[in-house]
From TrEMBL:
KW DNA repair (keyword) present: no
Organism per entry: Mangrovibacter phragmitis
Keywords assigned by UniProt, alphabetized: Membrane, Transmembrane, Transmembrane helix
Protein name per Swiss-Prot or TrEMBL: MFS transporter
Transmembrane parts of this sequence: 16-34, 46-65, 77-95, 101-119, 139-160, 166-184
Keyword Cytoplasm set for record: no
Length: 193
């Protein structure tokens, strides 16, 4: 006897899409920051990635406070993606001209906070539903998405000589974050929240 799985809910599809966009952008951001910072010094690379991890954790834990939990999860997802896009925009501006350490740190911190908010909004432990896909398919998609984002960002960056391609690669990450915000906003409007 085979058991039929229930069709995935709209919320589950939205959460899966949000986490796929989040992991893709986060992985590509880490690789681009490492590649850019290693050209300056190894200490800069470690510092920026550590800052990203700390602010991601801060955004994740900060969005667990009761003040933020009162908001709808789609609302938190939307604003998290917007904050992440704002941070990435700082990174684009910092890398557009000369190497500005303060703008770079600000961009990494803001994008990390936004990505932490998205991660908290996309994960909900109180869900009681069946998985939309088999676990192996979910894992493959969660690995393939970030790998594709990394390859595309590195390809964009590699099309330019020296460091001039980094703003264009980070601009793609701004687009990914804005796509996540748009997807959350459309889902929010469709659900009538």
């Amino acid at each position: 006897m085979t058991a039929l799985s229930a069709p995935p809910s709209f919320a589950e599809k939205t959460r899966f899409t949000a986490t796929a966009l989040l992991y893709s952008g986060l992985a590509a951001q880490i690789v681009l920051l490492l590649k850019r910072s290693i050209q300056e010094s190894m200490v800069d690379a470690i510092t920026l990635v550590l800052l990203l991890v700390i602010t991601f954790t801060g955004g994740y834990l900060g969005s667990r406070w009761p003040v933020f939990r009162r908001k709808n999860w789609l609302n938190r997802l939307y604003y998290g993606f917007l904050v992440s896009a704002a941070g990435m925009l700082f990174l684009v501006m910092a890398l557009q001209g000369a190497y500005h350490w303060l703008s770079l740190v600000t961009g990494v911190a803001i994008s990390g906070l936004g990505q932490g908010i998205v991660a908290m909004a996309a994960t909900d432990t109180d869900r009681n539903h069946h998985a939309a896909m088999r676990p192996l398919s979910r894992i493959l998609l969660r690995v393939a998405g970030p790998l594709l984002a990394i390859v595309v960002c590195l390809h964009i960056q590699g099309q330019f000589s020296g460091i001039t391609g980094f703003p264009y690669a980070f601009a793609l990450l701004v687009d990914l974050a804005l796509l996540g915000a748009l997807h959350a906003k459309i889902t929010w409007a469709d659900q009538g929240y």
